[in-house]
Design a protein that fits this description.
The chain has 2 helices and 4 strands; from the N terminus they run αββαββ. A 4-stranded mixed sheet has the order 3-2-1-4, with helices on one face. Helix 1 packs across helix 2. It is globular and about 50 Å long.
């Protein structure tokens, strides 16, 4: 039985920036549990050092969806606050439409993308 974790090989561009993005993405994924409703088409994270932006692509901008997305942002802030110093601001950018290249989160680290058959 193994007592050590397997060895992991990282690509040549792996460094503090990718490690930061991965950490923020994991925290955002945990915060999103139970928050992705049927109106959400995509979620992506833009992990800047001073500002983290959660990009949400939704089919409709209703009160329930906006509340769920704001709670996700609040949960992400709460999760990061005790482990990140200095704490970046966490913002929500909500966009109504399709999760295609016109969506502002399309080129950032995506943590959820609705399959086109589910629409």
């Amino acid at each position: 039985m193994r007592h050590e974790p397997p060895e992991t090989t990282y690509g040549p561009d792996y460094g503090p920036r990718i490690e930061w993005e991965n950490g923020v993405l994991v925290q955002a994924l945990q915060a999103s549990q139970g928050r992705i409703g049927t109106a959400v088409r995509g979620l992506a994270v833009e992990a800047g050092y001073e500002r983290v932006v959660l990009h949400a692509c939704v089919s409709t901008d209703d009160a329930d969806t906006r509340e769920d997305m704001q709670e996700l942002v609040d949960d992400l802030e709460s999760a990061m606050d005790p482990i990140v110093d200095p704490m970046p601001s966490v913002e929500l950018h909500l966009q109504v439409g399709d999760a295609d290249p016109s969506w502002t989160g399309y080129h950032h680290r995506r943590l959820y993308l609705m399959h086109w058959r589910a629409r």
